[in-house]
Structures
1.
Amino acid sequence: MTTASQSAVAPAKAEATRATIDPIFRQIRDLVYKTSGIYQQEEKLYLLVDSSGRRIKKLSLRSTREYWELLSAQGTREHEMRQLLNEVTIGETCLFRSLPQLDALRKVILPEIVQEKTKQITKQLRIWSAGCSTGEESYTLAMNMMEESERLLKGWTIEVLATDLNDRSVETAKAGIYGDYALRYTTDYYKAKYFTSLDEKKMQVRPEVKNLITFSRLNLQEDSKMLFMKGMDLIFCCNVLIYFDAPSKSRVINHFFSNLNFGGYFFLGTSESLIKLNDKFHLVHFPGAIGYWKLSLKSGKL
Amino acid sequence: MTSTLETKIAERVSRIEATPAIPAVFLPLLEMLNAPPDQVKLDKVVQLVSYDNTIAAQCLRVASSPLFGMTKSPESIKGAVISLGLRRVETILLTCCLSQAFPARNWIIDPAVFWRHSLGCAMVCRKFAEKLKGADGDEAYMAGLLHDIGFLVNCLSFPEEFSKAMELAHQSGIPFDEAEREAMGFTHEDTGAALARQWNLGGRLVDVIAHHHAPERSKSAPPLVALVHLCDLLCRARGLGYGYYENRRVDLANNPAWEILLQEHRELEGVDLVRFTFELDEAVGEIGELVATIFGASAAAKA
């Protein structure tokens, strides 16, 4: 576990890009933020330059200006924005993707939830990884909770629900087999404790971790199914809503809100924002992480 | 705070004046900062900047940082003063002077950590003020830069008590002012305010230093104190804190300070806090560099 200060960026790179980047990429950055809520920071603007570059090449465009027109013109913008977002979020999924989020979870939120539920007879923690893709986030959460089951969560039942729209992703997730790249932030401690080596390059998650997780296919836009996902303490939904238009996004978030217990939290991806789509959640800051809080009943005001 | 405690703090703080480390530029500068902007003369500022070689060189380096909006380095001090504007130069000068007034000796807090927090808060205060109609960005910068000046007083005048507070904060992850109150019986707000009064800082700045953890107590500048309070919290949540993990959730929009600021600036409702946070993150690297520029490579290495 590390602290938020690790998220500080390498200044040298920022210096190099600031002067050389075509200002049009800041326009693209703002458009991406407005439509998806994904914010590409100045230091990572070169990633947006690369992503756009790949699209420009694929589409055989002559200039960035032409690409900008494609992105902003009616008729082409929706399709192209989707393609660009696919490029932008490529390689985002890996285990232990956001340490500040995990720190917030273990150091601030869990003690709070344990306190909150102190009088309940069944001690149960329910976490939902919504849009779990190939399972990286779900396993990360499960392993971290297992660590706490020796301490804070002693005697608790831990349940992680992991859902995705894509059947193939769900199958891959169930297998729990990952290579070096997905495991690049996973420490040796976790590898030794929760994985078995399949060959030199691949590792598989151990059955005891898998046992905590239920993987299934779910469409977040299917209202009738969403109604059944009640009683969550935490919901993680990383880089999924970015593809939704504002009304659908707002509907899904409303579902998340009612699916959460009072005092529960909702987390997005680290560079993702709700852009004020919901005023029921409280936007809260933890060191290095932003979350959305469903006010606790005990805090007195609703 | 009891009156005996107040006397004790004032007595210890009065000894700080004798510290030879305060550069000759510092006190005249503070005087100038208190004067209305239209009474500040260009030549006087250039003279102050040029007075001390080290400070002049530091100023030129800082002035060329992208954080101050310069695209190329100014070549002369007068050039820097003209292109940056008087208020901007005053803030840069103040930043440089502070580093000399409190050289990194016998510090209980890591100087790099302290300066990153103070400078970071100064920058964030200015950025935030720019989003609010009629707010003075340079005043906000100074307020942010000086708000924790009591930390330095504590290092100099109450080293033992302050060490204990520091230890408690690191161990328990509670907010620093709470740790001070528990370990010392007073906080950096109290000691900072005593120094600010001794330096004859303006009432608004004294209020910021004295009440930035409880802006509702401010009498002369509630919106400014509230602004610093919120920016301070935000900095501590984004890697520009006191160098330890604060175990808590911060809800800025439901903080009393938000309400105080909102009364004065309705446009606060339209501020996208998440995007503002992401923009703050962008400046973290540059603030680290700026700390290195002003305070030397050793501070940067620690940061």
2.
Amino acid sequence: MDEKQKRGLLLAVAFLLPLVFVMVVFVSTYIPSRTLSTDYNFVYAICSEGRAPYSYYCSNHLRNLYTIENGRLTENEIPADLDSDNDGVSDRNENYRTRLFLHNNTSNSSEEISLTEAQRLTLDDRLTSPDGVAVEWQYTSGGNFFPFVRYSSNYGYFLTQGNARKEIDLINESQRSYYQNDFMFLGWVIPQ
Amino acid sequence: MNKQELLAELSRQLKDGAITEADIQEVLTTEASSEAQPAGNALHHSSLLPASIVTRLLFVIGAIFIALGILYLIAQLWDDLGSLARIAVTLGVGMTFAACGSWIMHLDQDRELGSAFHGIGGFIIPGGALVTLDEMGANFDSSWPVTLTIGMVFGFYALLAWYHRRVILSFFAFANGTAFIYLLMDSLLPVIYENVFDYLTMCLGISYILFAQLFRDSWNERLVPLLLFFGAIGLYGAAFIQVWDSLIFEMLYPFLAFGGMVLSVSVLSSRITLTVSTLAVIAYVIYFTAEYFADSIGWPIALILLGFTVIGIGYFSIRLNRKYLQS
């Protein structure tokens, strides 16, 4: 290899090294995320109305209110004296308003449904869908890197399978800040 | 080599950019001062500070004043300006300076003056391009518009550097190219993944060092110290961040740092990388002592041992410098 070829090789490596790294990271993260999907839609509840969307104990109320029994959504009676967030105000007087949504994974959009409509659906409340996908809250503050400081972060609900993850657009997502407690995953919709 | 051949060769080298007018000016100045001194004349001012350096310094100071003045003026008028006027006073002014710089370089009458114009333009154009993007109503929900804009600025300066073969243009190509790579990563990833930007910084550090090797004895020679410094800082700094969280990096880092010292004297012949890699070794020793020995032997003893170790590493580094790099 003569001097000119060596310099050519050095130039190619110097120029391509960062680009190849970016492409490798892209291929190993973006493509699995794009191809991640599930055949099963899911139902979720939010309880942000009447309270700030980042109410810490709103999800306790949701857990008390909704259960899945034999594949059907059941709305439970909340005891009159139950105070799930221990703030001295009973849950009945907290002014919580819950809403139910059916999330379509194909269009990545949510549609509000009534309790009656939700109760007609067969739900599987396991964490993973029958085809192995989960709905998870993730918060990543990996924005800071040497030698720069970047205060951005990434958070929200994701469809996950192994290392692959795909962000899902839920109702009220933009107001949720980085708390996740106004949300309750109820179950995967099992086709009849 | 006769006079004609000598002039033809000089002309060719000037055209290639291997020699600049500043180099010739420097030779003439040195010759003039060396002739003047034996004659017993009073010490000529130019022998202390060559005219070309004074000129260059004045151009740089002037360029900084002009750039600051323009920025201050734009800031004062900003709220009263419409979209077109905002684009005109940012991107328009930057492009005008760049065009003047290129024109002066093309005329080849005073290339340093051309660099000063390009220096002003280079600081204004990226901001101007982003102002243009904003005024055109680009959607900033995604970082793609900014990425593509900075990518275009990088392409612009890469082409200018290739055409004019001037260091100032290479500098802006590197600055915008580096920003473009980070932005490209940010745009391509669907979500932020921890540490990938640190790994990218390491890749860029290696890339800078390779470019520095490539630029030795070329028209980009003056970029070499800058590239070596930022390359080594990027590589060792980003790798050191990983040491805290990753066992693999914790084990590899000392080899990387000592390897850097060896490469600094054997391949790179660079005091800059030797200094940075020495600091990397010292940083690792401090980390290692604090992590594994401070609790067992106590901080006072650990600090004494640490002090001796740091002195030893420093002495070793100075010995390497004297033995291999002093010449």
3.
Amino acid sequence: MDRLAEEASPWVRLAMVDDVLNLARANSLWPLTFGLACCAIEMMAAGASRYDLDRFGVGLFRPSPRQADLMILAGTISRKMAPVIRTLWDQMPGPKWAIAMGGCTISGGPFRYPGEYAIAEGAEKFMPIDVHVPGCPPRPEALIAGILKLQDKIKRGRRLERAG
Amino acid sequence: MSAPAELARAVEQLGATVPAPFEHPFAGAVEVRWIAPGRLPDACRAARDAGYFFESLTCVDRLAGQGAFELIYTFNRFESSASSRVAWRVWSPAGESVPTVSTVYGAADWNEREVWELYGVRFAGHPNLTWLLLPEGTEWRPLLKSFTAPPASIYDDSQSVVPDDQPAHS
């Protein structure tokens, strides 16, 4: 079978069912309608006509975590909000992915300083993140780049181990 | 007589006094008066009856670590375009509570919760004095002058909530 696959590979692609599924999953992401702070404005811009996330199959923002498989964390996470976000994440059915958009969700960003008392220092303190999009806030192009990166990762069927 | 001056005269009937020049002048208000904590609801009622809305409540930790606070209530009105803000300053001695003004101005409710959670000033008669911005159960008061950093435990990564999930899917 391996030999056959090798010989046929220039003409025939013997995809595993998973590969096909992953292709479908990657090109039909359903993000959660969910904004935390100023990054959400850029996320909305990315979803609107000018940048048009629909081109990548990501345009249908769902109002319920039960219908979403992508969480775009867009904005500052206060310590009070963190458990709420974790609950939303737990309510999303798998397979699911998360994008940390902006400095705050990556590390606390500008709110990280000695004596800081109200802001969670990065979303990874309380949930897993697949792709980080740096910026303060990132432009819509950067978010799109992050989504393309995530789609790449989903198509490969595993977590990205290195960039590129 | 201008409306702020009239109001100031009215609260002077309640024992309000003009701050002395050396007492940290409060800029931005045309009339500033010291109000005794016990007369605060009456002074606020006077402001409400004169057509003023509640603008803000802020707190100053003047004597670091002593537990005494200065509260500044500001009021304004829509009727005049010229500066018309008035401010009531209240000195809250250590260990004493201040009467709530949320019964006079509903908008003061959340302001008082914020001052309580960030400074620890207690407002007697407040309907729901609980945490507004900080997580429920927070015990430290981050805006006190004596505050340096929250307890180490909330920074402890070993307590962080979540383990990495299984790979995105198998």
4.
Amino acid sequence: MHWSLIIYAGIITFVTRFSMIFLLKKDILNDKAKKILSFVPAAIFPAIIFPPIFLDDTGSVDLESNPKILAAIFAIIVGYFSKNIIATIFAGLISYWFLIFVYYQ
Amino acid sequence: MNNSLKTTAKGIIDVSPLMIPVVPFGIIYGVIGMDLGIGPYMTLGLSIIIFGGASQIVLLQLFSSGASSLVILSSVGAVNARHILYGAVLSEHLAGLKLSWKIILSYVMTDQAFAVSNIYFNKNNKNNNKHYHLLGSGFTCWTIWQISTILGIVLGSVVPEELGLSFTISLTFLALLISDFRKFKNIIVMLVSGLVATIGFNSIPFKAYIIVAALTALAVAVLLTLIDIEKK
């Protein structure tokens, strides 16, 4: 990796944070625009979450004997009921370890 | 204690509970950076220059899969789009500040700092030093993020690969979405994004699957929002 890539990524990140604070005197985004922007995490994070869970090393879909799918489902259930970020992460990780070290052995 | 110090301290206290999940996230990021072999300086350099967990992980993930700079940078831009919303919401509270203040506060405006300082700003609109709250919350995030990155860099050389810690990236992003699990429309948007990315992982050229999936899902979100407004 080249440092220039990191610096460009840093500039892009900064500009998204700075632009509105710099340009606006008061909040001019209407409710519709805000509603749509509030969907951004839901629109982008699953694109980061899904492929490493469902695809194997060769890039083909692996639905059988895939401990990551089961562990992710368990994490979603814990997250749904607890609404707790840490509990969700650890539920997924511990069930994943159980599956790969105990169940699939 | 004068007002600006008091407000800074309030920012630090308010954001502290939200720092608990940031620590494992930062450690995982540091471990992954070392795992990919970019070395300790670049791993920490990303945390200082970019200072955004999701952006840093996306950059590493796409870089290691051989994506081009253009795809990497536009994906980072897409991940950051939510900051535009934060900036717009905070703009009226920060409009009177000097440019140097705006630059500093923008650099530290993370999800967590925004969440607590926006609440404070709305409740304490008359406090002339209210921007110190964001200074306190933002730099608390910054300090915790750098320390946990360093912890991850140190641990990166000792954590065995068999533990499958890369799975925690998926889990961390999943955990960031828990508030969306109860909203039907958000679930649809999430499924569209995830399915397009999984199906398109191999077929979409230039590793642009994150951008394509995000734009498709956002288009669905626009449709759902418009349908909702029509009904009213």
